[in-house]
Amino acid sequence: MIRGKAAKTKVKNKAPAEIQITAEQILREAKERELEIVPPPPKQKISDPDELADYQLRKRKAFEDNIRKNRSSFSNWIKYAKWEESQQEIQRARSIYERALDVDYRNVKIWLKYSQMEMRNRQINHARNVLDRAVLILPRVNQFWYKYVYMEEMLQNLSGCRQVFERWMDWEPNEQAWFTYVKFELRYNEIDRVRTIYSRFVTVHPEVKNWIRFAHFEEQHGFLANSRDVYEKAIEFFGDDYLDEHLFMAFARFEETQHEYDRVRVIYKYALEKLSIENRQNIFKQYSLFEKKHGNRFEIEDIIFNKRKTHYEDELKQNPFNYDLWFDYVRLMEDEGDVERTREVYEKAVANVPLKKEKRLWRRYIYLWIYYAIYEELENKDYEKTKEIYKFLLDKLIPHKSFTFAKIWIMAAKFEIRRKNLSDARKILGTSIGLCPKDKLFKEYIDLEIQLREFDRCRILYQKYLEYAPHNCITWMKFSELENILGEVDRARQLFEIAIDQPKLDMPEVIWKAYIDFEIEMEEFDRARNLYERLLERTEHVKVWISFAQFELLANKDDHQFGILQARNIYQRANKSLKESEKESRLMLLEAWLEFETRYGDEKSLASVRKQMPKKVKKRRKIQTDDGTDAGWEEYFDYIFPNETENAVHLKFLEMAKKWKQNQQQENTSNESS
């Protein structure tokens, strides 16, 4: 038994669904699934003329209404015209197309449909008239022209088709239109006409590929001379500025197929000469392959030479200040042996003067000039050119006020000497030391005069050299040596005296040693001993003391024992003098003294020196960085001399510690044995 109304269903979750379905989506899905099946319109059979007229009237009214609603919808016009055509009302269809063209005569589709209708209904003259009007109004629409020539060719109206092509070509259309014309004439084997078309075509579209097509046409039909003539005309047409590597490669391949190998080489070489650097890579590749197949070793080497040359030119075009690359380039040209071309490369190289007057930038550059001068002198024997190079370098190019190159002055002078122009060589070197004096220039000038035995000139040059650099000890030594060789001992000694009295010397120990050696060589031992004493007044260097002691042995070689005593006295004086100096210096002295006593002394003297020898101990000290922070500890060795009070206590402590350690080791050994 039902007690009442059923309880209402309650919606527990009232939140909106994650995916919302719209009415548009429902309708679209219904359309896709074809849920609404619309029955097709019923077929209507017309069997009466009145009924047909009524049907046509209703259809025309519907089409006219559609056109009236939207005149710019050309699909309505086309549908209308097609319907009239289906009703065999060609004149009405023609009228509809004309009305559509009045609306928009630029509509290509209307013109095409119009012409197709005329052709379908075999209205050839009408179709020709439509297409003729189309190409007059819209001559740049290629579809009209294609349709026109196709119709004429299908009708076998070849003359008419050719006329249409000529009218089309007068508008200079794209390449494909010209190829269509060419193919038309080829179909009827009109070779001369095709040649004429190609001649016009390559002037309208002057691309390299079109000239190559023209040449291929002549080749394919057996006109080899004409093909060669086309390639030559193409090279002449493009000139030197617009040549392309593909033209030369095609020309070379043609000649290779005709086994004209000499012509191929001429073509490749001409291309390498005329083409720019960027356009030569494929030429080199093809040329190399050709020579590997048909050439010899010399021709292959010539290709390699040209390839390297092109590489250098390409790199130098990007960076003309790469002097190392210029060196490689000029060496390559020198190896080839062409003097004029080598000179041209040298001139191009030296024209790249460094932009700044800094010697570091000029060092590599100046060697280009050096190589240039050597090349002209040794290879070409052109001495006037060599002289011009040196003169230009020294008089105009090198900024001597900022810096100079002694090497250039010297090379120019030696060149003049080789040409036996001694006065010019002296003039060059004299100008150099007057304009920009340098040690090397003075030395070379002095060496020249010494070789010529012009000693008075040498003296003058040495005086100027010492005025320029009075601190140069080597110069003082060389000057004194010259005077000594010439027998002027007093002059040499006086020069040494002047030298050691100079307030500033670059190597004073060298000049003192040379002076002492000079006196020893002259066997002036008293003078040498006096020099040692004077030197010790200025410096108490340990090496001076050791050398002084060794000198005493040499000076008293006739009385050997006296010499030993004198040397021992020097060592004793030195030991006393060096007590307050660095420990390393005193240790060096004691070691030399010990060696001396070992060789010349007795047991007593030897024991005396050994007693004074220091002991080497290891110590530790703190390390600090530059900013003053502690960086840990380091170990170092120190020397403790026995005659120092503080050090003696320290040594005694160390000896006691060492002795205690030995006793401990002995006790441990005895305990283990028991």
Automatic annotation (TrEMBL):
Which residue positions does the secretion signal occupy?
Answer: none
Q: Does the keyword Nucleus apply?
A: yes
Enumerate the Gene Ontology biological process terms: spliceosomal complex assembly
Cell location: Nucleus
Which InterPro entries does the UniProt entry name for this protein?
A: HAT (IPR003107), HAT_PRP39_C (IPR059164), HAT_Syf1-like_N (IPR055433), HAT_Syf1_CNRKL1_C (IPR055430), Syf1-like (IPR045075), TPR-like_helical_dom_sf (IPR011990)
Per UniProt, residues of the Pre-mRNA-splicing factor Syf1/CRNKL1-like C-terminal HAT-repeats domain are 224-303
List UniProt keywords, sorted A-Z: mRNA processing, mRNA splicing, Nucleus, Repeat, Spliceosome
UniProt lists the family membership as follows: Belongs to the crooked-neck family.
Stated name of the protein: Crooked neck-like protein
Which organism's genome codes for this protein? Answer: Dermatophagoides farinae (American house dust mite)
